Amino acid sequence: MARDFRVILVGHALSPYRSSEPGNTWNWAWRLSHHLPVDLVAFPQYREEVEAFLAQHPNPRLRVHWITLSGWDPWDPARGERGIRLHYILWLGKAYPLVRSLASEACSSVVVHHVSWNTVSVPPPPSPGFPLVWGPVGGEQKAPGAFRALFGRDWPKEALRFLRVASLPWWPGWRSKVAGVSLALTTNRETLELLRWGGARRTELFLDTGVPLGFGLGAPPHAPREPGPLRLLWAGRFEPIKALPLALRALRWVRAPVELWVAGGGPLQGLWQEEARRLGLEDQVRFLGHLSWEKMREAFLGAHAFVFTTLRDSSRAVVWEAMAHGLPVVTLDHQEVGTFLPEAAAIKVPVTTPEDTVRLLAKAVDQLVADEALRLRMAQAAWRFAQAERWDRRAE
């Protein structure tokens, strides 16, 4: 098959040394190139990192084509994300003529796989003449309105975002691009239903991130972790959608001694630290700050379980990283984590009202405290799930 088949991968963000979209694009390209020749079309934001890696690890089956905007570019990476959406749309207009040229010049069968961005708002341009795979893509999921108090002044912005995404199927240009996609891979049921409503020909659920080969524990846990108070780990950026206060408030309902380790930082750090003090949790909550990868690994290995409270997210690689280190997960039962996490590895709490959700989070933690055998079974199931989502297996 490898002799007569080629993949053209389109991924705006690309780096072998970064997470999120740059890392996802790289992992798709690198792992697919172990099976098939891959042409990769990307924006050169991290070109030096890519070329340094390829200089140390030559790969003749992976060719990278860098596309920039000639003349005016509305986005300057050194100044944050202002103008990035318009930049991306303009970049697609330059990238896809090259994609079509590469497809027409190929002496083998071709599939084009558009990987990043993975936003449902901007489908790839129509490209007749060859199969086009889009995704895994997310974006339709919304934060539940009952939790709007956690967003404060950011709630109107969140509501407008949802209205914009919900209106997409009414835009003829968006519908025509969606109809031109041969296969749309989606990261959650919400986005899958939106694309079906928008006229997608074929849709399938598929995680947008994976676990590197050799990542995490080398084998499933065979014994409970060291005794002591149950140690929960929470990790993420301190912004409204991550909803750390749900975990803080749940601690007040937990009957047994429990510690909460909080990794990360961001604009709400002071507010959330004050919330922990107001709740009288100074002795139970440890704010660890931003952690290097080595320190994050130590946190994974030192915790008993991972807590995920995000109210709107397409994907969180940190969840799969935690599972690869043998951590059971306590999470909200919606969006990607609700769709993909197996019941054997996670306690998934219904998202109803803040009060009920907080109590159910506390009940889940009490369950883990009381049943060490359950924790071990969940840890083993989490590890097995992470191994099933390794990048090499996803490429296969």
Q: Supply the number of helical segments.
A: 14
Helix percentage range: 25-40%
SSE run: EHEHEHEEHHEHEEHEHEHEHEHEHHH
Strand percent estimate: 15-25%
Structural class: alpha/beta
Shape: globular
In what order do the strands lie side by side in the largest sheet?
3-2-1-4-5-6-7
Radius of gyration: 22 Å
Tell me how many strands there are: 13
Low-confidence stretches: none
* Global mean pLDDT: 92
Largest sheet: 7 strands, parallel
Question: What is the terminal separation in angstroms?
Answer: 12 Å
Give a quick summary of the entry.
Helices cover 39% and strands 17% of the residues. The protein is α/β, with parallel strands linked by helices. Helix 11 links the parallel strand 12 (329-332) and strand 13.
